[in-house]
Amino acid sequence: MKIAIIGAGAMGGAIAEGLVESGFSASDISISNPHEEKLKRYEHSGITTTTDNKEAVKGADVVIIAVKPWILPGVVAELRDSLHYNYQAVSVVAAGVSGEELQSWFDYNGYCPTLSLAMPNTAVKCRESMTFIVPVTGNEKNPDIAIYERLGKVAVIEERQLSAATALASCGIAYALRYIRAATEGGVQLGFRASEAQKIVAQTVKGAAMLLENGAHAEAEIDRVTTPGGLTIRGLNAMEKAGFTNAVISGLLG
Question: Residue 239: what are its φ and ψ, rounded to 5°?
């Protein structure tokens, strides 16, 4: 399978790096961006780079378009005549764009490619993304799904769920990192160097996530480490008094 990535920004670049890290052949990946400076970092790994979007999609089985939403219509208009709708699938990574809009932009004499909306997060770079896929045309066997499965967990959802999924996973990675940053600052106050505290907190969060991966329930695991009159329950109550749970929910709801 050959993959073309349009856009070498934070998401497009992370997808390219994650695929190479997963063992995907760099020579089967092309990435395009209007600014050559952004492309230099990918050349050493063997990824084909170009400033020409039309050149990038030649021979690709899957085209991933990862650009800003306001740029997307122009990129689609540029590529539409160069895409082979009978065998090239297109995955669009852009927030706030509907499936209906995508179909109207890609429509070419009444035809549309196999098309999906994808919402990964930046952890694609280390192959730990939570990615959501909305098949716009095609079905749950769209070829882009196998690509994102190399980069973490994938869930195929309905479009009506996409905003909630974005808050939980795409925005959510920033929320998780904000907790890590806050806990790191607390660690400094407790006497650790900032670099040490961050490693401790990051590993602790990773361990908590792995417990849940193995089927545990979050509240049950909290109960395991919460002894009567102990340090953990005092800390939890102090966080709740400061509005921890409500703050998280309010952040998700925007």
Answer: -65, -40
Nearest Cα residue to 235 out of 204, 203, 195: 204
d(CA 49, CA 4): 10
In the block, which residue shows the tokens 């932009």? 105
User: What is the 8-class DSSP label of residue 170?
Assistant: I
**Residues present in the chain in total:** 254
SS3 24: coil
Helix or strand (DSSP H, E) at 100 = helix 99-106
Half-sphere exposure of 68 (CA within 13 A, CB side): 4
The pTM for the full model equals 0.89
**CA neighbor of 38 nearest in space, from 10, 64, 62:** 10
Give the pLDDT confidence of 186-238 residue by residue, as tens digits.
999 999 999 999 999 999 999 999 999 888 899 999 999 999 999 999 999 99
CA pseudo-torsion sign 138, 141, 147, 149: positive
- Sequence-distant (≥ 6) Cβ neighbours of residue 86 within 8 angstroms: none
How far apart are alpha carbons 14 and 93 in whole angstroms? 12
Q: Is 114 helix (H, G, I), strand (E, B) or coil?
A: strand
Tokens coding 7: 């856009």
Give ∠ CA 206-245-156 in degrees, rounded to 5: 60
Residues 102, 80 contacting (CB under 8 angstroms): no
| Token pair of 68 as six digits | 């800003």
* Cβ(47)–Cβ(26) below 8 Å: yes
Q: What is the pLDDT of residues 103-156, one digit of tens each?
A: 999 998 888 999 999 999 999 999 999 999 999 997 777 899 999 999 999 999
